[in-house]
Amino acid sequence: MLNYLDKLKNTDSGNFFLMAGPCAIEGEDIAMRIAEKIITITDKLQIPYIFKGSYRKANRSKGSSFTGIGDEKALRILERIGREFGVPTVTDIHESGEAEMAAAYVDVLQIPAFLCRQTDLLIAAAETGKVVNVKKGQFLSAGSMKFAVEKVKEAGNNKVILTDRGNTFGYQDLIVDYRGLPEMQGFGVPVVMDCTHSLQQPNQSSGVTGGKPELISTIAKAAIAVGADGLFIETHPDPANAKSDGANMLHLDLLEETLTKLIRIRQAIL
């Protein structure tokens, strides 16, 4: 995976790389359909691709919200996608004990933003030898993420990605400070912009997080313009009925058009 990480930063096409997929693994059929559609698009556009899907959602606002279809069942779906389509896969882990389990099925372990300061979790992920994608906490500055990078590297793993997902703005909104992307690139790791979670409107009184998906393209364009190495986009063929984070997902039918426009921006700044 180290060689693949190098390719993400230096592709022949000069394109950014993409982490995309549903928020959560809802079932095998829909996960396979989403993966196939995205891979068709990324192959056509020569965009390096990592399939994203959470095998379990452990940080829902309400206790009654969907959390998953079962850990092993979801992880096996991720494994199948990676094997059959020949792409790397990424999933979240939430506790140290999950690192080794998830690493048996996926290529990249993702540390959720709320947990990016959890030293034991970062070390456990690092010790699997997998690529570790650390999401920047919405409560942290970009500069403070150097300590997360150091924790992973000091555990003997140099395969680190940092992902920005906005900063807390008041109680129920987020805002993106694009100065943070080049600042985090200064730590010598690829930097990704999460174009969907950065548009969340958390802490709603309903207990269901809101969002502004109509601005996904705006966030992505700005990120590419300032030189982001990659983009993170959650996408679904029916966001209104997605079981997690539907309020801030990109409709799958809009993905190709969005990526095509972003490639033009990327080519303009190279």
Describe the structure concisely for a colleague.
One of its GO terms (cellular component) is cytoplasm. With about 270 residues, the chain is α/β, with parallel strands linked by helices.
Describe this structure in words.
- The chain has one domain (17-269): Aldolase class I (TIM Barrel), CATH 3.20.20.70.
- The longest helix is centred in the first third of the chain and has 18 residues, at 28-45.
- Helices cover 36% and strands 18% of the residues.
- It contains nine helices and 13 strands.
- The mean pLDDT is 91.
- The strands form three sheets. It has an eight-stranded parallel beta barrel, surrounded by seven helices. Strands 7-8 form a two-stranded antiparallel ribbon. A two-stranded antiparallel sheet has the order 10-11.
- Helix 2 links the parallel strand 1 and strand 2.
- It is an alpha/beta fold.
Helices and strands in order, then pairings?
Blueprint: H1 2-9, E1 17-21, H2 28-45, E2 49-52, H3 71-85, E3 89-92, H4 96-103, E4 108-111, H5 119-127, E5 131-135, H6 146-154, E6 160-164, E7 167-168, E8 174-175, H7 180-185, E9 191-194, E10 200-201, E11 210-211, H8 216-225, E12 230-236, E13 250-251, H9 255-269
Parallel strand pairs: 1-2, 1-12, 2-3, 3-4, 4-5, 5-6, 6-9, 9-12, 12-13
Antiparallel strand pairs: 7-8, 10-11
Helix pairs in contact: 2-3, 2-9, 4-5, 5-6, 8-9
